[in-house]
Amino acid sequence: MFTSINPATGTAGESFAELTADEIETRVARAAEAYKSWRATDYDTRSRLLSAIADQFDANRQRLAEIAVREMGKTLKSALAEVEKCAVGFRHYAQEGPAMLATREFATAGGTGKARWLPIGPVLAVMPWNFPYWQVVRFLAPTIMAGNVGLLKHASSVQGVAAAIEEMVIAAGAPAGVFQNLAIKSGKVDALIADDRIAAVTLTGSEGAGMKVAEAAGRALKKVVLELGGSDPFIVMPSADLDKAAKTAVTARIQNTGQSCICAKRMIVHADIYDAFLEKFSAGMKAVKAGDPMDAATDMGPLSSEEQRQTVLDQIEMIRAEGATMLFGGEALPGKGAYMSAGILVDVPIDHAVAQEELFGPIAMVFKADDIDAAIRLANDVPFGLGSSVWTEDADERERFEREIEAGMTAVNQMLASSPEAPFGGIKRSGHGRELGPYGLHEFMNLKTVLG
């Protein structure tokens, strides 16, 4: 049994039954059967379904957003924006997907050939709670467009969201089995990956979860895409617009209460502007209003659970014990709910375990860099390589950052964010493979060469 806990109040919400072994088998068999016919559909049919799902998300945006607020604590305005983004994502693949799948012709020494993109089968997705709709759509929209079918194992804490997504797909007229929610716990994932009817697996989550899924996929010789943790650098150089950089840094750190893999977590600031930036950034972080996520005036809701809040508090204490200074904030707020104040850590020993981890809460670490070489070294001196943001008006500096920062994504003079058009993913311990754009569509397809 799964029971949702509202992190803003600590009260229990809706409960959901876990699937039995027989029910899991029924759904997997249904997916395998659905694939036989869905793979043969034309692109127009797939596009129409994606557009219809987008319409369902639009028509139910308020209800869908409120489910996310209750289950994981994001603000209502953030949840509404997420649902709207999902509709945009479905429509992007509906409109652009056919062109992404176009057959390419080429010449060979012996004549001619062509490359065709073909589906491969049911795709299993293991998804987290922090962007409970969007991270599912990042897999689901390209899955449907590819001619594959999808099975979702969502996080235990957001089973209401998982059920709602399935409801939207069914209401849009999807054939039975094209997408199904599997209300199961993590212990059932290995057996699903090993099942011959499952063609591939994608996971967004922690390093630990990624290693387990990759190991299981490796044993089964199946394709896997992993989008794991991040400790994204936010680098500010003297030529940057300091006011804009500092204001954006606040949003980049506290979005989703700091619970985003691409939140800016390490602010790396050139020594010449360090004090000025820290003053502006501190003022912005101190002004962050934590409170009722349903209140439009709230900047930041609770963390997703009491357990998650305690994890962040423990990390703060560990690194303070090694010499880091908590300038302000970083405290559990009194009363009900998993709330904590936004805060800033300085004098952080870069080689400490916590500095090498992902701080999944509204706490920023601020580092001073003497020059661009030092900034790049600091940016790369973690095991992660997901995203990054750099602030400079110098063309040579920009070129170096684009070329030398070890990350799958770099935003220049703006906050890093995902979009349906742009490939999303990382390197190092942040995972491998890409979502979104044509690359995300092609990840789980057979690029078939035809000669003659």
From TrEMBL:
GO molecular function: aldehyde dehydrogenase [NAD(P)+] activity; succinate-semialdehyde dehydrogenase (NAD+) activity
Oxidoreductase in keyword set: yes
Oxidoreductase among keywords: yes
InterPro entries: Ald_DH/histidinol_DH, Ald_DH_C, Ald_DH_N, Aldehyde_DH_dom, ALDH_GabD1-like, GABD/Sad-like
Matching Pfam families: Aldedh
Location of the Aldehyde dehydrogenase domain: 2-450
Keyword annotations: NADP, Oxidoreductase
Family stated for the protein in its record: Belongs to the aldehyde dehydrogenase family.
PANTHER family: SUCCINATE SEMIALDEHYDE DEHYDROGENASE [NAD(P)+] SAD
Protein name: NAD-dependent succinate-semialdehyde dehydrogenase
